[in-house]
Amino acid sequence: MEIQFSVLSSQFSAFSFQISARRFALRSFAAAGMATLLLVAGCRQDMQDQPKMMPQRGSEMFADHRGARPQVLNTVGRDQLHEDSYFYTGVVQGANGYRQELNVMPFPVTMEVLKRGQERFNIYCTPCHSRVGNGLGEIVQRGYKPAANLHDQVRLSQPISHYFYVMSHGYGAMPDYSAQLAPADRWAVAAYIRALQLSQAATPQDVPAGVPVESLKNIAAQQGHAEFAEPWALPATAIQAYPHIASEGTPGMAPANPADPAIKIPASKPAPAAAK
Description:
By secondary structure, the chain is mainly alpha-helical. The protein has a domain at about 85-205 and about 215-275: Cytochrome Bc1 Complex, Chain D, domain 2 (Orthogonal Bundle), CATH 1.10.760.10. The chain contains eight helices and two strands, in the order H-H-E-E-H-H-H-H-H-H. It has helices spanning about 1-40, 85-90, 110-125, 125-130, 155, 160-170, 185-200, 215-220; strands at about 90-95, 100. The protein has a two-stranded antiparallel sheet with strand order 1-2. It is elongated, with a radius of gyration of 38 Å. The N and C termini lie far apart (about 120 Å).
């Protein structure tokens, strides 16, 4: 009896295994069939061949057979009106038809504007021009071409928009900073340069009445840096801006020998009235 029961159990197990195998095969076939249907459905080209315009591609929809449509006349893109051309260029058309720089700011100069200009100046200008603007920045002391001394008589006499124009287009070895400085920031830096020029050539008469005046040498000595109150000498490693070598070309198509290119100690007398 026990032997017959064992045989029946073995046969039943084998039969159950066959049924499970068949079910697995049927399920696999069903899954494969479903995947095939999905694949076939995805082979349609409706998504690939959309009725849309492709850049620089022709089109039969328009009479000129161009997919890219021309801009509507007399329309201006957002933030591209630039109605105040002086704000964006720093120049106006002079009586002779050429561009003319002006000693005028396009907006009022407030303390916030000067602080913003000081911040941007310290970031982008001081490596060449130094914190005081005398052209002896850190990279100049390491062999780079001397930058302009913002306190010599040439720069003091230049209109304030000249600095905006130079920052916008570059000059000589100086690249343009239009990518780094927005127009408002360039004007803020120009305003700060004027304030910096005044600070380096100020006299006791420029201080309002009742405000105490302390010597820079005394302040520097109190801070433990008496050398900061002394004139900055041009290091021997610096490269002077002249004489010009014609065979080497002119950097940036700027004048080969601009007026007064030498680095000098800031002037001790105040700036001309027209430059304030």
